[in-house]
Write a structure and sequence with these properties.
- By secondary structure, the protein is mainly alpha-helical.
- The protein contains 4 helices and no strands.
- Helix 3 packs antiparallel against helix 4.
- The protein is flat, with a radius of gyration of 25 Å.
- The termini are far apart.
- The model has no long low-confidence stretch (mean pLDDT 78).
């Protein structure tokens, strides 16, 4: 048991070491330029845009994120239970709950 754990810790240590070396080597080789006024200025089609005009509709994004989570978890449940036909009650139950939640979300979203 200790052999497997020590091998894992050696691999993790080597991965961290190699990652640190690559990061340090890239930082040395990367070109640097001074921060000028033009580099730090906001730009959008040549016109400065005041922050009041930029509006994001977070509510629509949230709805799509919830739909994605529902289907993602449903896909995971279905993918992990296909090999065991004994546990078919779980995906059927979760699929029904997912369908009900999607109907409720769609009804709330259309209001």
């Amino acid at each position: 048991m200790l052999v497997g754990l020590s091998g894992f810790s050696i691999i993790i240590g080597l991965a961290i070491l190699v990652g640190t070396i690559i990061y340090a080597y890239g930082k040395v080789l990367a070109p640097t330029s001074p921060d000028t006024e033009g580099k730090l200025a906001p730009y959008a089609c040549g016109e400065p845009i005041p922050p009041k005009k930029v509006r994001l509709n977070v509510e629509n994004f949230f709805i799509y994120a919830v739909y994605f989570m529902i289907f993602d978890v449903l896909g995971f449940v279905l993918a992990t239970t296909v090999g065991r036909p004994v546990n078919m009650l779980l995906p059927l139950f979760y699929g029904g709950v997912s369908l009900i939640s999607i109907v409720i979300l769609t009804a709330m979203w259309r209001q």
